[in-house]
Amino acid sequence: MENQKAMLHKGAGTRLLKAETFLFPLLFHLRQKGVRVERGYHAKSLGSQLKDADRLGANFALIVGENEMREKKGILRNLCTRQQELLPFDSLEKDLTSRIFADIPPPALEAERM
C-alpha cells in the first residue's frame, strides 16, 4: 500500500539549481520507499507553497532555501502541529524517513483480520 504522506520543498533564488541537484536524489529515494512526494516547481512564496502542501494533504513540508543550503540543514515542518525542526543534510533521508513512518498509525486489528 502506498504511503499517503507528502512533502514539499522550496528552493529559492539563484541557488535553486544547487538545491535541485541536492534534493532530487533524496526525493527519488523517498518515492522508492513509498512516500508520496511533491515539490514546488513555481516561484511562489513559501506561504503559498505551504498552503499547497496542506491542500494536498501533506503531513510534512521540507523547506530548503538559500539559508538552508548555506547551513546544510533543512527545515522539517509538521503541517498538523505546526512545529518545525532543523535537520542536517548528512542524515536527512534517515531522519525524514523515521519521522514520516513514525507518524503513520498502526492498522486497526479489524482491518488485519480481513
Description:
This protein is of the alpha+beta class and 114 residues long. The protein has a single domain, classed as Anticodon-binding domain (Rossmann fold), CATH 3.40.50.800. Helix content is 43%, strand content 13%. The protein is built from five helices and three strands; from the N terminus they run ααβαββαα. The chain has helices at 16-32, 46-55, 66-71, 92-102, 109-113, and strands at 60-63, 73-78, 84-88. Strands 1-2-3 form a three-stranded antiparallel sheet. The longest helix is centred in the N-terminal third of the chain and has 17 residues, at 16-32.
Shape: globular
Largest sheet: 3 strands, antiparallel
Low-confidence stretches: 1-6, 106-114
Share of β-strand residues: 5-15%
Beginning-to-end CA distance, first to last residue: 15 Å
Strand order of the largest sheet: 1-2-3
Q: What's the CATH superfamily, by name? A: Anticodon-binding domain
Please, how many domains?
A: 1
Structure classification: alpha+beta
CATH topology: Rossmann fold
The overall average pLDDT, rounded, is 76
**How many individual helices?**
5
Give a brief outline of the structure.
43% of the residues lie in helices and 13% in strands. It has 114 residues and is an alpha+beta fold.
Write the layout of secondary structure elements.
Elements: H1 16-32, H2 46-55, E1 60-63, H3 66-71, E2 73-78, E3 84-88, H4 92-102, H5 109-113
